[in-house]
């Protein structure tokens, strides 16, 4: 038995379905279901019974959840004792992230956090991808990570930002609005250079949609992308909240929307005080409208 299993059982009891519980915790639903089943096997009891499309607690499940809440509250209270600290003096915070999200971390979050926590040394742990991020957290090589959600069930997730991918195109492009995903098949696109992290991200997105565009321009000169679109060379896929100068181009949403949810993630263990501080800071930052970054 472990705290992760108890958290999953309590969340399932609160939300009525394992799917809703997994969504609330930002973990994969199969991982949550597997953890609950493992706990049932370990205890030798059935915690949930099916009811319509959801689940309800069995009598023994109600008793387990009641005790689980007490245990989780006790753990939270114990972790709260770490608030008594010397203002993080001399502390180090290690944050893992993927190449495509590193600019978000080093350009936005860390500088703002450092203004109020100047004594804290923040070290960025660079990872090759989401799988590598999970390894760094599990092995203790990083305290926190900024990555895409959802994450495996043995990690705790805190959503930070939902990003909408939009189509930036010459105004004269004739396309239905909102743009159907099928319209991307055969469309001329301005794309990041082949092999770059941003290109891998977009190629993965297009593969998931099942679209094969025509490559109009390939370049990592991000400052030139909008100019090429204005010149009518092709359209661009990018995040709405990272757009600055949209004069002379049309910004169109997709239907269904294309979104990317990113969040702060950590292992299910007691966090160092400075990591708790960073989490609180990031959650507050997520509530504040961001300034647009043209670079």
UniProtKB/TrEMBL annotation:
PROSITE patterns named in the record: HTH_LYSR
Keywords attached to this entry: DNA-binding, Transcription, Transcription regulation
Keyword flag DNA repair: no
CDD domains according to UniProt: PBP2_LTTR_substrate (cd05466)
Family, similarity comment: Belongs to the LysR transcriptional regulatory family.
Protein name according to UniProt: LysR family transcriptional regulator
Domain HTH lysR-type: 1-58
Species of origin: Actinomadura yumaensis
InterPro entries attached to this UniProt entry: LysR_HTH_N, LysR_subst-bd, WH-like_DNA-bd_sf, WH_DNA-bd_sf
Lineage of the species this protein comes from: Bacteria, Bacillati, Actinomycetota, Actinomycetes, Streptosporangiales
């Amino acid at each position: 038995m472990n705290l992760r299993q108890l958290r999953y059982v309590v969340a399932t009891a609160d939300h009525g379905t394992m799917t809703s519980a997994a969504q609330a915790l930002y973990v994969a639903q199969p991982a949550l279901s597997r953890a609950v089943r493992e706990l049932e096997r370990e205890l030798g009891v059935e915690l949930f019974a099916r009811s319509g499309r959801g689940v309800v607690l069995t009598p023994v499940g109600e008793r387990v959840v009641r005790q689980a809440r007490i245990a989780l509250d006790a753990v939270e209270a114990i972790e709260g004792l770490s608030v008594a600290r010397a203002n993080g003096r001399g502390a180090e915070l290690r944050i893992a992230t993927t190449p495509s999200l590193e600019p978000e971390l080093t350009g936005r979050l860390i500088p703002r956090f450092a203004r109020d926590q100047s004594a804290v040394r923040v070290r960025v742990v660079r990872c090759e991808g989401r799988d590598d991020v999970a390894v760094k957290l599990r092995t203790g090589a990083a305290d926190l990570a900024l990555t895409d959600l959802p994450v495996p069930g043995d990690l705790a997730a805190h959503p930070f930002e939902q990003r909408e991918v939009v189509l930036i195109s010459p105004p004269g492009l004739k396309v239905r609005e909102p743009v159907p995903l099928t319209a991307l098949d055969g469309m001329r696109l301005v794309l990041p250079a082949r092999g770059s992290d941003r290109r891998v991200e977009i190629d993965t997105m297009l593969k998931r949609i099942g679209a094969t565009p025509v490559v109009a321009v390939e370049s990592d000169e991000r400052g030139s992308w909008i100019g090429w679109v204005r010149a009518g060379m092709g359209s661009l896929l990018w995040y709405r909240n990272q757009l600055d100068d949209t004069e002379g181009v049309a910004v169109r949403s997709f239907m269904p929307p294309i979104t990317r949810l990113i969040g702060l993630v950590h292992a299910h263990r007691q966090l160092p005080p400075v990591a708790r501080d960073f989490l609180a800071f990031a959650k507050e930052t997520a509530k504040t409208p961001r300034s647009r970054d043209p670079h």
